[in-house]
Amino acid sequence: MATIKILGTAGARYVVAKQLRSSAGTYIEYEGTRLVLDPGPGTLVRMATTKPRLDVMKLHGLILTHAHLDHSNDVNILIDGLTEGGLKKRGVLFAPRECLSGNSAVVLKYLRPYLKEIKILEAEKLYTIGNIKFRTSRRHYHTAETYGIIFDFSGKKVGFLVDTLFSPRLIESYRDCQILIINVVRFKPHPSPNVQHLCVRDVEEILAEIRPEKAILTHFGMTMLKAQPHQIAAKLSRKLNLEVIAAYDGLTLEI
Ligand SMILES: [Zn+2]
Questions:
Q1: How many Å lie between the centroid of ligand 1 and the Cα of residue 234?
Q2: CB neighbours (10 Å) of residue 212?
Q3: So what's the pLDDT on residue 10?
Q4: Beta partners for residue 135, in sequence order
Q5: Per the database record, which ranges form the Metallo-beta-lactamase domain (predicted)?
Q6: CATH number, domain containing residue 119
Q7: Do residues 33 and 130 lie in contact, with contact meaning Cβ atoms separated by under 8 Å?
Q8: Which are the contacts of 31, defined by CB distance < 8 A and separation ≥ 6?
Q9: Reduced to 3 states, what is the DSSP secondary structure of residue 73?
Q10: Cβ atoms within 10 A of the Cβ of 152, count?
Q11: What is the pLDDT of residues 2-34, one digit of tens each?
Q12: Between the CA of residue 190 and those of 32, 59, 162, 205, 221, what are the distances in Å?
């Protein structure tokens, strides 16, 4: 059985800045292998205060889907924690190249040798850590180098469709997902093409096409919170005749 605990459900600047929802990442455990995906601000604190407590020193790896702060802020403190400040060389970090080199690099250089390994994420590749297997999606349409993650838990595919502008070309990457966790930052489309996030209309199109067994909406911006995510999820559920739920901080899925 896989356990997925969505520690935080905040997306975009105001919800993160005001902590209207937590911006912590997602904890994933499968057959003794433990990961954190997209450790945004507050991940370490949430891990230490959630019940049951999640021990940073027992993590085997970290995954960054992209370098944006609400996805990567706590990566350094988690590396420090899981390696006991470098005393134990362990843990694997998976991240797009942009997180490690160039102007958007987010992983502190002095921490990198503490890790057992750093693996670069590229589009549509397979990766393994311990008992967890996953693949990346095609590259997302976002202002940073971004890949979605599709976990394979003994044949059960669980996709994290993270930040992106909508494109029908993305759907192929997630077509075989039975469970789809979607970052839906916006209620309505943004007039500026520089805001590269999904809105509710995009999510409806994606879900109508993929028809997963279950969809979970998360990573909410202000317009989503105002529109009440659980009501949006209920409406999509009725309209598409699918199970769609809105995540809340601490939502745990047993798969
Ligand atoms: Zn982003």
A1: 26
A2: 23
A3: 98
A4: 126, 150
A5: 33-220
A6: 3.60.15.10
A7: yes
A8: 130, 131, 132
A9: coil
A10: 16
A11: 999 999 999 988 999 999 999 999 999 999 999
A12: 42, 37, 17, 17, 12
d(CA 66, ligand 1 centre) in Å: 7
In the predicted structure, residue 67 carries a pLDDT above the cut 90: yes
At residue 12, the pLDDT reads: 84
Residues paired with residue 183 on neighbouring β-strands, in sequence order: 218
- Tell me the per-residue pLDDT of 81-109, one tens digit each, with 9 for 90 and over: 999 999 999 999 999 999 999 999 999 99
**What are the residues whose beta carbon lies below 5 Å from ligand 1 (ion)?**
68, 163
Distance 142 CA to ligand 1 centre (A): 7
Structure tokens that stand for 234 in this block: 């209920």
**Which H or E element spans position 43?**
helix 43-49
pLDDT value for 191: 84
- As for how many domains the chain has, the answer is 1
For residue 143, give the nearest of 192, 77, 180, 93 by alpha carbon: 192
The residue type found at 6 is I
Please answer whether residues 150 and 177 qualify as being in contact, where contact means their C-beta atoms are separated by less than 8 angstroms: yes
Provide the domain limits for residue 36.
2-254
CA atoms in the 13 A half-sphere facing the CB of 10:
22
Element (H, E) at 2: strand 2-6
- Find the 92 Cα to ligand 1 centroid distance in Å: 22
Local structure of 223: helix, strand or coil: helix
Placement of tokens 């370098």 in the chain: 67
